[in-house]
Amino acid sequence: MDEVHYLISDASKKVDVEAHVLRYWEEELELDIPRNEMGHRYYTDLHIRLFKQVKNLKEKGYQLKAIKHALNQVLKKDGKAQGELSDEILERDMNAALKEFKEENSGTSLSTVKGDGVSVVAMEEKMEQFQQIMNLIIGRALEVNNEKLSQDISCLVNEKMGKELEFLFQASDQKEEERFRQLDETLRSCQKGGQAEAAAAKVPFFKRRRFGRSGKKLRDGK
DNA sequence: ATCTCCTAACTTCGATTGAC
DNA sequence: GTCAATCGAAGTTAGGAGAT
């Protein structure tokens, strides 16, 4: 027998709720709605019956949390025979599961009961939430601490690097200065030598004979 | 009594994608 | 181009609980 597939628009008409409500229920009830090759949800007759049942229960005042619990029970029990699951069986099993859920959650002093006993937040759940929050807070604190630590390290490294670089630049400057000084000295001595030679070259021949190469006055006749 | 806060259950919006 | 679908996020509403 061919299974009929409905798109969300058709399914919403059949169940008589808006499409976004079906999506919302899917999410809240953690239902596994199959997708076609385009990624669009498609619903079978079983899904339609399930959603009709959910709607019916909601109209009776049950919360989605309770319906989810009941649904899980029913799907666990009747899941194998999904195709043949009739409306009567579905309704009967859902009601039985809801009754069980009510009893489970209303008799214990650890539970908070609101209204008809359907909206229940167990202490365990609260403890779990509390633990999660604590983990979150501790995690954040560690995160902040780590961040501060890495900032401190980065500051220290920057400072150290700065000093190191400054020292290197200073040493390099000193070396450079020393090199220039030496170069300057060499140039000056070269210049001195050159000037003396040039001065000697300027003295006239007759003077050279009287004064000699160095320009000193020679004794007559010698 | 009323104000504030919280939660559940939608509802709306905007961006994106694919079919016709 | 229009329509119909997706998703995630943000907004809205109603009702309950606690504080003042």
Automatic annotation (TrEMBL):
Do you know which CDD domains this protein is assigned to? HTH_MlrA-like_sg1 (cd04764)
The record ties this protein, via Gene3D superfamilies, to:
1.10.1660.10
Q: Which UniProt keywords apply?
A: DNA-binding, Repressor, Transcription, Transcription regulation
Q: Which domain of life is it from?
A: Bacteria
Q: What are the residue boundaries of the HTH merR-type domain, all occurrences included?
A: 5-73
The record's InterPro entries line, in alphabetical order, gives: DNA-bd_dom_put_sf, MerR-type_HTH_dom, MerR_fam
Q: Which GO terms describe its molecular function?
A: DNA binding; DNA-binding transcription factor activity
PANTHER family given for it? Answer: MERR-FAMILY TRANSCRIPTIONAL REGULATOR (PTHR30204:SF69), REDOX-CYCLING DRUG-SENSING TRANSCRIPTIONAL ACTIVATOR SOXR (PTHR30204)
Name-wise, this protein is: MerR family transcriptional regulator
